[in-house]
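Quick question, first post here. What does this chain look like in 3D?
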Amino acid sequence: MRLYPDLLVFIPTLTNEQLTDLLNTVRQRHIDYKKIIQSLDAEQKRERFQQKVEQQLELWFGELTLEQERLIVQWSQDSSFPYELWIEFQTQIRIELKQMFATIKDRNQFDVELQRLLFESETYYPPELAGQLQRNNQTQIEYVIKLAHSLTPRQIDYFHEELRYWRDLIDDIG
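> Answer (accepted):
Ran it through. Tokens below.
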């Protein structure tokens, strides 16, 4: 992660007040997420997943076919939604952030904690979450392959146009 060296230098320059504000902002985002998730029943969570997948695919491939929409529905039925475990993970990350900020004066310890948070965040997963995410990842691979095989020539052209747009944008910036 290219950001790591900058974070290693930047975070220790923050005042206690700024660190507290950062933690409060993270906490509030987590609370907002938790409220949204807890307000949804199982079917609404599945629909939320379907909508997000459809939106992302439409961004890259344009209008979806009925077959692709059916694949997305099947994908959502074959996936688990460990939102409560994810909320538990977010809580653990906030605890770890607070502990890491407490080590800021000890550069070596802070470095170790920051690296672990950035590069080994899965070590903070509740045990059940890692397994569910791994199964979901396998399911994702399966359905992405099926969806890729179902692309129409028009969708492939749309995708190539999107890639050209982003390549040109990067060239303009660089």
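Residues 94 and 146 are 38 Å apart (CA to CA).
Helices lie at 4-10, 16-38, 42-61, 66-78, 83-102, 107-119, 127-149, 153-173.
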